From TrEMBL:
Name of the protein described by the UniProt record: Palmitoyltransferase
Catalytic activity: L-cysteinyl-[protein] + hexadecanoyl-CoA = S-hexadecanoyl-L-cysteinyl-[protein] + CoA
Kinase listed as a keyword: no
PANTHER family tied to this protein: PALMITOYLTRANSFERASE ZDHHC16
Membrane topology: Multi-pass membrane protein
EC assignment: 2.3.1.225
Domain commentary: The DHHC domain is required for palmitoyltransferase activity.
Species lineage: Eukaryota, Metazoa, Chordata, Craniata, Vertebrata
PROSITE patterns given in the database record: DHHC (PS50216)
Family matches, as InterPro entries: Palmitoyltrfase_DHHC (IPR001594), PFA4/ZDH16/20/ERF2-like (IPR039859)
UniProt KW Transferase keyword: yes
GO molecular function ontology, one term from the record: protein-cysteine S-palmitoyltransferase activity
GO CC term (a single one): membrane
Spans traversing the lipid bilayer: 43-67, 73-92, 205-228, 248-269
Length: 333
């Protein structure tokens, strides 16, 4: 039996030396219920700190360089309120994206049919429907032990995918993250700026993060433009509580930061929305994986990420998406 070409990226998982459960150590103790999800990666933590620093820097310049010294109190009050609300939502979205387990309750196993005469576990064909245990959170590390596989009570001709890197039973549409050191279902990419993988359970918060960062960047650029015009028309010593050279330097740095992040987050926001509408992650698009899951409308895909039904909660990082009757684990076989 020949392997399906679309599955070539899993060839390493089909080699007997990687699929022997005897080589897996007993899995570590699961995280206690309610434990906070946090990736201990030095680079990711540094990027997250830099993200907060840049937002707080923009907050400082907007408030103490442009708005508070302004004599137009209505202008200052309205723009200060809008900018602070957007900045707060951006940071809240960042926290939710960083501290949320990227995988929700998922099928722990993906069954595969074998042709007659095939021996376990060398020759695999396309996945078929089957029953499996449900696990909450990221795919448990090291659960592909002989005892656990036997406890699944697989029928003859059914095998499971196994990740050779984290020694775990690998569900469909899952990919191994070398930073998180786990298999993440519907993993789009690992983002160092949120120090976490972007998966099915935190994609909403990542999309909101990029959207709010783009909005505050655009808002800051507009205010910088108006402030420069105002300072050119009047005396520079009266349009800011700082000296003119310091004011110019702070505004130019904010302008550069705002322009850079406006472009970056706008592109990320667009690619994420496109990925959600097509129900295809960035990794699946990159690897051109064969589509084996049921095709849904763009609106249904949006509701699967942001929640059922449509509401203002879509724009809130504090609202956990309600999946309703959506079945994100329906596959075409």
């Amino acid at each position: 039996m020949m392997l399906i070409p679309a599955h070539h990226f899993r060839d390493i998982e089909r080699k007997p030396q990687y699929l022997q459960p005897e080589k897996c150590l007993p899995p570590p103790q699961p995280r206690p219920s309610g434990a906070m999800w946090f990736i201990r990666d030095g680079c990711g933590i540094a990027c997250a700190v830099v993200t907060w620093f840049l937002v707080l820097y923009a907050e400082f310049v907007v408030l103490f360089v442009m708005l508070i010294p302004s004599r137009d109190y209505v202008y200052s009050a309205i723009n200060g309120l809008v900018f602070n609300v957007l900045a707060f939502l951006a940071l809240a979205s960042h926290c939710r994206a960083m501290l949320t387990d990227p995988v929700k309750t998922c099928m722990a196993v993906a069954f595969t049919s074998l042709g007659r005469g095939s021996s376990f576990p060398e020759k695999l064909d396309r996945p078929v429907s089957g029953h499996g245990r449900h696990l909450s959170g990221a795919v448990p590390k090291g659960n592909a032990t002989k005892e656990f596989i036997e406890s699944l009570q697989l029928k003859p001709g059914q095998v499971v995918y196994k990740c050779p890197k984290c020694c775990s039973i690998k569900p469909d549409r899952a990919h191994h993250c070398s930073v998180c050191k786990r298999c993440i279902r519907k993993m789009d990419h690992h983002c160092p700026w949120v120090n976490n993988c972007v998966g099915e359970n935190n994609q909403k918060y990542f999309v909101l993060f990029t959207m709010y960062i783009a909005l505050i960047s655009l808002h800051a650029l507009i205010m910088v433009g108006f402030h420069f015009l105002h300072c050119f028309e009047e005396d520079w010593t009266k349009c800011s509580s700082f000296s003119p050279p310091t004011t110019v330097i702070l505004l130019i740095l904010l302008c550069f930061e705002g322009l850079l992040f406006l472009i970056f987050t706008s592109v990320m926001f667009g690619t994420q929305v496109h990925s959600i509408c097509t129900d295809e992650t960035g990794i699946e698009q990159l690897k051109k994986e064969e589509r084996r899951w049921a095709k849904k409308t763009k609106w249904m895909n949006m509701k699967a990420v942001f929640g059922h039904p449509f509401s203002l909660g879509w724009a809130s990082p504090f609202a956990t998406p309600d999946q309703g009757k959506a079945d994100p684990y329906q596959y075409v076989v």
